[in-house]
Every structure is written in structure tokens, then in C-alpha cells.
Write a structure and sequence with these properties.
247 residues; alpha/beta; Rossmann fold; 9-stranded mixed β-sheet; two-stranded antiparallel ribbon
């Protein structure tokens, strides 16, 4: 079985966010980049678990970005990917990213394509569905359980008020969320092996961006906490009614 795992880089959750060029571009100074957690903890680790059960399985990683993303993809290789593909284009447009990945998937004839449910920066949650549409493949989103028997996958996901179970014939595109697998940390052997694993750089296919960033805006700063003495219940009620507007 051949598995393609989509990997993206995102700012660390503790990074201080600021913008430049008239609030149209992220200020990357001092940003610590990480593998998008949904890609790493759930989709990649589940692929590794499938390979552990069937050593004949091959795991390829794909990412869209410039050379600065290579340390991220090398970490993914250290976790357990066999080889990686970097598509040499920088874009925040979901359709452009999905189109590049779909082209790789089409040529690679993969049985299974895993994505995280979303990235933690833009939270668009659209890449998986777009890849599936471009490849005319079935798509199951927000999966938290995945098993495979022969060429049939059983995929579970939470829905409003319960759980949904899907059976689908491979190939299939699946977006993964919490519950699919447990986070792993690369060991020294994996880190050393990742240095020599293949990382192929491909030029992008022609694709026009369909969205444009006009500007970014930070959320308003949090207001200070107001403390009310226990013997001032009237004041507490007034604040709740007039300022918090909860009464």
C-alpha cells in the first residue's frame, strides 16, 4: 500500500504574531515553525501505525512551500516517512495548494491520502476536500478512527449526537483529527536516518490563485479583570447586567 501524507508548516502556538507591509503579510522574524499538529499527531502517526502492521507499506510526504519548509519535512521523515516531495511554490491559496498536491497524488497512484483536518494558522479545513474533488476520489472528513482490511477502509467520525461509521473502497482521501492516533517524538535513530532519506523538489504546475489577502487584523486586547468584594453584590449585578450583558 502507498500512503501520501500532506504536511504543512505553521507557527508555534506560543509565537507572538505581528504583521508587516500594511498588515498584508505575516512578520516571520522570530517565528518558530512547527509541523501542523493535525498533520503530525494524527495523519502522519496513523500512517506510521499502518506501516508497522504491514511493513510493505510505503509512506510518502508532500508539502507545498519554498526551501524554508525543508526542516519541517525532515522532522516528518524522522518520525517515519520514507521519502518526501516538496513542491517549490509559496501560496496561501487553498486551491493552489490542493492542485499541486493532487498532481503529485495523480502521478504517484496512492491508495490512501491523509491530511490533517485543518491547519492551525488559517483553519480553512478545505485542502482534503479539494484534493478529493480534483482526483474524483471519495472523501471522509474529521476522521478519528481508521482501520483497513484488504482494500476496504472502515472510517469513524463524530457527528452531532453520535458517531458515524463509513466503509469505503480504496483509494480514498481522509482528513484526520484528535483520536486518530497518539503523538510521537522522533528518536535519535529516526533523526539520523532522516538526513539521508530522499527529498525531491518539484516545480509547480500552472495554477491561478483564486483568493487574495487584503489585510490581517489582530483580535482586540483582552480587558483587565474587575474584582468585586463579596459584600458588594449590587455592584456585581450591575456589572453583569451593564458591562458583561449576561442578565
Amino acid at each position: 500500500m502507498k500512503i501520501l501524507v500532506c504536511i504543512s508548516k505553521t507557527p508555534d502556538t506560543t509565537a507572538k504574531i505581528a504583521f508587516t507591509e500594511g498588515n498584508t503579510k505575516l512578520d516571520e522574524n522570530g517565528i518558530q515553525w512547527i509541523i501542523n499538529p493535525y498533520d503530525e499527531w494524527y495523519s502522519l502517526v496513523r500512517a506510521i501505525e499502518l506501516k508497522e502492521k504491514d511493513p510493505a507499506t510505503t509512506i510518502h510526504l508532500v508539502t507545498v512551500g519554498n526551501a524554508e519548509v525543508e526542516p519541517i519535512i525532515r522532522k516528518a521523515l524522522a518520525l517515519g516517512g520514507d521519502e518526501a516531495i516538496r513542491i517549490n511554490v509559496q501560496s496561501n491559496d487553498s486551491f493552489v495548494v490542493a492542485s499541486q498536491i493532487a498532481e503529485v497524488a495523480k502521478k504517484g497512484a496512492y491508495d490512501l491520502i491523509f491530511t490533517g483536518k485543518e491547519t492551525i494558522d488559517y483553519n480553512s479545513a478545505s485542502i482534503g476536500s479539494m484534493i478529493a474533488a480534483l482526483l474524483d476520489l471519495p472523501f471522509v472528513s474529521l476522521a478519528n478512527h481508521f482501520t483497513i482490511e484488504g482494500n476496504t477502509a472502515t472510517i469513524k467520525r463524530e457527528i452531532e449526537g453520535g458517531e458515524e461509521t463509513n466503509e469505503v473502497i480504496l483509494p480514498v482521501v481522509v482528513s484526520c483529527q484528535k483520536g486518530m492516533a497518539e503523538q510521537r517524538i522522533p528518536n535519535m535513530r529516526g533523526i539520523m536516518a532522516a538526513r539521508t532519506k530522499p527529498l525531491h523538489v518539484q516545480e509547480p504546475i500552472a495554477c491561478n490563485e483564486s483568493t487574495q489577502v487584503l489585510d490581517f487584523e489582530l483580535p482586540p486586547a483582552k480587558q483587565g479583570v474587575k474584582l468585586v468584594a463579596t459584600d458588594q453584590m449590587d455592584e456585581l449585578v450591575r456589572l453583569l447586567k451593564e458591562e458583561a450583558k449576561v442578565i
